[in-house]
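User: Please predict the structure of the protein below. I'd like the answer in structure-token form so I can feed it into my own downstream comparison script.

Assistant: Understood. Taking the following sequence of 387 residues as input:
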Amino acid sequence: MSSSIKRNPTREVRIGSIFIGGGHPVAVQTMCATKTQDVEATFAQIVQLTEAGAAIVRVACDSENDAAALECLSGKIRELEPKLREKINISVDLQENYRIAERIAPFVAKIRYNPGHLHHAERETPWREKVRWLVSVARKHDLALRIGINCGSIDPSKKAEENPIFASALDHVSWMRELDFDRFCVSLKDSDPANVLEINRQFAKIYPEIPLHLGVTEAGVPPIGIAKSRAALEPLLFEGIGDTLRISLTVSNDRKKEEVEAGQALLRDVAEGRRTVTEGWKHEGLNIISCPSCSRVQNGRFVELAAQVHEMTGYAREYPLTIAVMGCRVNGPGETDHADLGLWCGPECVNLKCRGVLLGSFPYGEILDKLKEQLDLLIARIDEKSL
């Protein structure tokens, strides 16, 4: 299917049993929403997502207990019938604990690190030395790396740059070249489709040989999450940009395969020449950002809350405001700081912010009323200015 899509001549990178770049088909991937330490549930989801067509399945790992669970998962995967086992390619998502990479390296095909997160551990160690160490782990264990840069968790030293995502990417690619390591791909993700388009076009122009993983981060609940993703990914794919992709949706665990199905549908449309979005597509009115369900979500009610926010705010859909509903500590702080109203969901309570200022922490049962109060205040100010 995706082999018929026009492709830029990026270099070939092996990830387990598949290759990306080098003219190989665009690979659809996703991420487990189950808790990594729940081995049975995570194993079942890996199998389900692979059978749905995911060429790469990502699993979060941030502790020794996560690493032990990943080792158990690897053992269970080895017991599968060869035809299915060979289709499973696990990518691990490193968080602040980047040193866990060496512990989990024997059980995965790829390691994704976020430049922003490298600053949260061993702060006295320069980031270049941390990356040098990750590259040594990848070489030793025959792994691929992904430099995964996300607007919600920017490298602190780059925040003052005009385009911090792009600036971070240039630094890390330059360092990879100095290390003479080329078995890596890059992702440059933003919650704004227009920014995703611009950044990936810029990068592909400067580094046409480096494989790109495409995605709109925190795209939200379907169908708007699919529309936002297509707004950025479809034009890029028609231009030959992109070697892997993910459609990031806020859905419950049992619906996780919808990300894979949405990605496959996008690739079918591009392969058959069908354009479903207009260049320059822009979200009008109220913009609700919500992160995809993943194993880092601290309370499963987050997914239900995101849907409730969409429903409750219907009366405000014409107002040019942004609400961010975030389920974890990874990208939650950044996205909620940038939004007009932000909900950062914890285990028991939800932190409510207004334009980066924390207003308080409220139980899940009270947060919708508190959000509506603040939304009405912002709407009143907009209406007052328009008189």
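That's the full token string. Residues 33 and 41 are 10 Å apart (CA to CA).
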